[in-house]
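Record type: monomer structure entry
Structure origin: computed from sequence
Chain ID: A
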Amino acid sequence: MNDIADVGYSKAFPVSWEELHRTAKALAWRLSEMPAFDGVIAITRGGLVPAAIVARELEIRVIDTISAVSYQDNAVEKIEERERGEVQIIKPPSMTTDGAGWLIVDDLVDTGETAKTVRALLPKAHFATVYAKPAGRPLVDTFVTEVSQDTWIYFPWDLEPRPVEPIIGSKR
């Protein structure tokens, strides 16, 4: 993992595929008590996997996307070298104009800047995230797990298995 302390995060929270699936399913349980949604709008890219799980569990077949970027990201940059910029919508949803009857799904609400931008575009949608940090939590309608603001969440698509040295090898 990268050195998160350099960018103001003091805690690391790695999430496995199994944990993400379980928590996204818990989000679907919470949402199942609501009236049926017309469709799901996944915020790309982080919301794609949770949105697929939620859509499956709620038997929603209509899925749209909204693409928002807030990091000025270069493919060769490391996480700690990214700078947060103004949120830009690079692909709006195509199946609704105000979000009425729709469910927006994202992996995380952090500072809330992306949520503010998406909410301004789709003010009537129900906004749900798997994880929420205190600064962004008031902007979502439904979430499952709250983590502290100083926590960097490592999603499974940000990680890959790596070999580790055997215990005996580290003692030699």
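Annotation 1: Helices lie at 17-31, 48-57, 113-121, 167-170.
Annotation 2: The beta strands are 11-14, 39-44, 63-72, 83-91, 102-109, 126-132, 142-146, 151-154.
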